[in-house]
Write a structure and sequence with these properties.
This protein has helices at residues 11-22, 48-51, 53-56, 65-70, 131-140, 154-165, 181-198, 246-250, 294-308, 372-383, 390-394, 400-405; strands at 3-7, 28-32, 73-76, 81-85, 90-93, 98-100, 103-106, 110-112, 125-127, 146-150, 169-174, 202-205, 209-215, 218-224, 229-231, 234-237, 241-243, 255-256, 258-260, 272-274, 279-282, 288-290, 320-325, 328-334, 341-347, 352-359, 362-369. By secondary structure, it is α/β, with parallel strands linked by helices. Strands 3-2-1-7-20 form a five-stranded parallel beta sheet. Helix 1 packs parallel to helix 9 (294-308). The longest helix has 18 residues, at 181-198. Keywords: FAD, Flavoprotein, Oxidoreductase. Residues 320-404 form the Reductase C-terminal domain.
Amino acid sequence: MRSVAIVGANLAGGRAAEALRQAGFEGRITLIGEEPWRPYERPPLSKEFLWNTSDVLDKFFLQDEGWYADNRIDLLLNTRAEALDFNAGGVRLSGGQLVAADKVLLATGGHARKLNLAGADCANVHYLRTRDDAARMALDLRQGARVVIVGMGVIGAEVAASAIKLGCEVTAIEPMAAPMERALGKRFGQWLGEEHGKRGVKTYFNRGVTGLKFADGRVSAVEIDDGTLIACDAVIVGVGIIPATSLAVDAGLTVNNGIVVDRRCQTSNPVVFAAGDVAEQDGFFGGRFRQETYQNAADQAQAAALAMLGQEVDYCKPMWYWSDQFNLNIQFCGQIPVQAEVVVRGDTESNAFVAFFLSSGTIDGVLTVNRPADMGIGKRLVERRVSASADRLADADVSLRELLKQTT
């Protein structure tokens, strides 16, 4: 293999380029990105970037500018990949130029899902996906601003916390019964909702948005499905992403809820691989799904790079993510079974605890709040499918490391 083209100059694309060089690949690497910025991390966009834009600028890029030149990686920024041209052997750019490549990695990520309502494209309606999105949003998160959050998944909950930190008046609207309920389950979603309420977030759960009141290009109020009108200065929408699969679809690759890949991160075309938010992969507990997490984007990109080099790869990991909100560090690994037995170690009242989610005695999921060291072991308990009794898991005198040793 003489050349690799990576479509997506983001976390996954950047980590793949790094992994190729670290593995000794000496051929040409071209990294193609639509944004004007070299690869950066997205987690700060909903937190530190909003708090102090100027302070975070130099901290969230994956590598300094000179690294790409030093490692002979061609950065094509502000550039759109238009098509995969299998006849010519490479990626066709929007201007018609061909980037020759023996293998291609699609790390195209996704686009923020928009509200299907009149006024949803007004200047003070914000969707958070890119650095430029965050910069525009930050201008509206000023002291005393009335901010409405639509959707209380990870992004919505984090921005709500950031807006409170910045002195905004925050109202959140969520169609489910609690924030992050899909990720945390009903019990701990409710706990998180109470924590937001204690800190000043006014919440409307089990409610949907039915309309926006707007004039002169700005939304002045949000209407919810019980007829309530919520006055606002800005609206933040966090209702998920749409995977960017158009290149794959046009190229005839197999696409479902994302670009379908095997455990080598290979698509239905043997010269094309995919990684990150756009890839539909085998689930650790069965089935297939997309993992929209930082760690998956980084790890799967590295796996894809090694697979492109012909190394043995079998990528299939449980989901792991974290979220920082207020003074809460929330981490989760695994899944929450439908009929999970829930065991808590620690004190939920003090916001320092671990929760285990069991299925027939096997640890399927671990949640930690303000106990990050426990997640280091918790991830391995999930990965190794460790079984443990509820009494031992709840007993703080029983070391989690001892439970882990039972499997070695």
